[in-house]
Amino acid sequence: MPATGITRTTLRRGAVAAAALPLLIGALASCGYGSEAKKEDEKANVAATDGKKLSASEVRIGYFPNLTHATALVGLQEGLIEKELNGTKIKPQAFNAGPSEIEALNGGSLDIGFIGPSPSINGYVKSKGSNLRIISGSASGGVKLVVNPDKIKTLDDLKGKKIATPQKGNTQDVAFLNWISEKGWKVDPESGKGDVSVVRTDNKVTPDAFKQGSIDGAWVPEPTASKLVSDGGSVLLDETALWPEKKFVITNIIVSQKFLKEHPDVVEAVLRGTVKTNEWINANPDQAKASANAKLAAESGKPLDAKIIDPAWPSIAITDDPLATTLKTQADYAVKAKLIEQPDLAGIYDLTLLNKVLKAAGKPEVSDAGLGVK
């Protein structure tokens, strides 16, 4: 597994997000994000682009309103990505599921997206390698198995119970099916029926289903996992415990191959923004948590309660490294579960621009695990 280029957050439990928001403005100014710093940023951006406008007037960026998409949430909220674009406008688009984001990318209505590994793999394979490239990592971890402690006290107690995953074939669904298989239990991957009932449930619905007792637990990303805990659930397993070095990709950054070919300068500028965003998140975890919550509040109309975001935030590691070896492993899990045929992932990564940005920033380059463009 590539070990270079990873910046793991050591996120501290912070104050209530709503209380932290007023402090954010002052904190940002003290970190160099005041008016004088803005002038310096603008000068740096002009230098990075040789004083020229970029080749596209706008870039359409997709993301999920999930904490595992913190790079997008914070980068958009704080303007850290926009600052690198020298006048190119960002058109943000929020999605609730990977397939709809891939469809938008395929249909030409999305240029760049934050997305999980399974939809990335499925989109690449179904297009026979013609529609997307993974150009960066974004996050690791942030996935937990939360259960009703009155019904389930040990992992062996899952047998015969109803456990939710977000969607058939999605990243968490694949991981849970693989875990079930390694226990020696049988589940039909299509219907979800077997020794454990795998109930595919939208993350928006899962908390209500849990409270009503129609499911006994869920294998889900944050903040859904912490929402279940706040409703009386108990974390039985953190998925990071199942991975070497406790790292696995949960969010990638992908790009339309057409957009990459026609506007590499815009893609490079976005990556400069995401690298700077990740650096700021890791250096300012409490302020970044408040910023992400402010963006979520703008999306949903209200921020996450402290009892949800405080335990959720530290479980997510923000990283530029795509952790390519773990994506290949997740593809193998999907094959093992008979959800996909053995995929040819050669060329799914193009980390050329990311490594250029990292080198310019004095950071180590990252690996594509042999799955990059030739």
Structure characterization notes:
The protein starts with 16 loop residues before the first helix and ends in a 14-residue tail after the last helix. It has helices at 17-33, 35-48, 70-77, 98-106, 117-126, 171-182, 206-212, 224-230, 257-262, 264-283, 285-300, 306-312, 324-336, 352-360, and strands at residues 58-63, 89-94, 112-115, 132-141, 143-147, 162-165, 197-200, 217-221, 234-238, 249-256, 316-318. Mean pLDDT is 88; it is low at 1-47. Strands 2-1-3-10-4-11 form a 6-stranded mixed sheet, sandwiched between helices. The chain has a 5-stranded mixed sheet with strand order 7-6-8-5-9, sandwiched between helices. It is globular, with a radius of gyration of 20 Å. Helix 6 (171-182) crosses helix 13 and helix 10 crosses helix 11 (285-300). By secondary structure, the protein is an alpha/beta fold. The protein contains 14 helices and 11 strands.
